[in-house]
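User: Could you go from structure to sequence for me? I need the amino acid at each position, not a summary. Structure tokens:
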């Protein structure tokens, strides 16, 4: 039987695409193993799927001054040694990495063991972890055509991000019923990420009376960010976080308002949802969401409002435009090259696995 080691972790964005790949990999005859960190989110999500899981030491590699910069390199070195031992034991045909700092020792160890490796870069420009891994990789999968110019010419492949197939199985009727809504008004779904987005939450609630004249609102506002004064507002429901019912809520949505994390916007694209993106500001990140959003806007998939420029009037106008011109956005998304991402990535994995056997 063919064997593959998946790696990646630290945040859900480095884990859920791997989870999306697992069913197709198993269907094609792979025995799947996973190497992640001791305490990252992957250490909880992967064992739930019945996949053998191996934790290794991991440390964050920073470009800024931090006391942990003295200790974390030793954690990475230890993780490299652990990964080499695991790869010798497991003897996989190929490694697939979704990124995050735990992936660095695994990918470098795979190179040292002459095991082919395919990696995935979600954002427009590679983060530090993937910059370290790219020289060790056979192929680099990307979400954005602009990313290819940052990669060695023979390595980059535009694939899109693996999307959880259950998201395509949502029921609009179940989503409306879950929220206590009817089908008389269109629905806006607001997603600010698992921790929520304070600025987005504030802006949505500031124009809630105007929005409710035309729409019903589903607001995923993040842990600890519910507004109890709005709990009885007709046509408005708020949740800290949704897991199982998310596919139904997305099916019920006519338009979406979201941050611009790579995996989130790829899901929006795959579901063909007209959307407004409010990327995390450069002050609060390395600026990757701003670049992601700019690419989607350029391709005609999204309306973008920079957080620093977010006003009540701009948001209300954007919502109305997204809804009134929804067919234009949907047609642009239907033309996207980022379709069949799982199929494309698994084919690259298969080719790399065969090359090892040669």
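Assistant: Here is the amino acid at each position, in order:
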């Amino acid at each position: 039987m063919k064997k593959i080691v998946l790696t990646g972790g630290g945040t859900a964005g480095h884990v859920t695409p791997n989870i999306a790949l697992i069913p197709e990999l198993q269907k094609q005859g792979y025995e799947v193993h996973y190497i992640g960190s001791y305490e990252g989110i992957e250490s909880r999500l992967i064992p739930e799927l019945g996949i053998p899981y191996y934790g290794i030491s991991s440390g964050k590699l920073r470009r800024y001054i931090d006391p942990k910069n003295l200790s974390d390199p030793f954690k990475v070195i230890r993780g490299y040694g652990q990964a080499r031992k695991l790869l010798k034991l497991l003897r996989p045909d190929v490694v697939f990495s979704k990124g995050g700092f735990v992936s660095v020792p695994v990918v470098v160890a795979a190179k040292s063991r002459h095991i082919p490796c395919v990696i995935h870069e979600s954002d427009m420009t590679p983060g530090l972890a993937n910059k370290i891994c790219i020289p060790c990789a056979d192929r680099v999968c990307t979400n954005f055509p602009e990313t290819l110019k940052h990669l060695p010419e023979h390595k980059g492949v535009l694939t899109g991000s693996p999307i959880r197939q259950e998201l395509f199985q949502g029921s609009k009727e179940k989503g409306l019923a879950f929220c206590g809504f009817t089908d008389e008004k269109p629905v806006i779904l607001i997603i600010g990420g698992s921790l929520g987005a304070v600025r987005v939450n504030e802006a949505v609630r500031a124009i809630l009376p105007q929005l409710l004249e035309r729409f019903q609102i589903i607001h995923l506002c993040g842990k600890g960010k519910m507004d109890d004064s709005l709990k009885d507002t007709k046509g408005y429901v708020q949740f800290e976080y949704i897991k199982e019912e998310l596919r139904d809520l997305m099916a019920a949505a006519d338009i979406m308002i979201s941050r611009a994390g790579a995996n989130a916007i790829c899901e929006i694209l795959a579901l063909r949802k007209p959307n407004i993106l409010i990327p995390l500001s450069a002050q609060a990140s390395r600026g990757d969401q701003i670049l992601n959003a700019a690419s989607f806007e350029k391709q005609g998939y999204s309306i973008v409002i920079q957080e620093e420029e977010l006003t009540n009037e701009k948001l209300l106008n954007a919502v109305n435009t997204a809804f009134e011109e929804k067919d234009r956005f949907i047609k642009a998304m239907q033309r996207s090259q980022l379709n069949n991402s799982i199929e494309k990535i698994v084919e690259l994995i298969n080719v790399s696995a065969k090359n090892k056997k040669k």
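One structural detail worth keeping in mind: The first strand starts at residue 2 and ends at 7.
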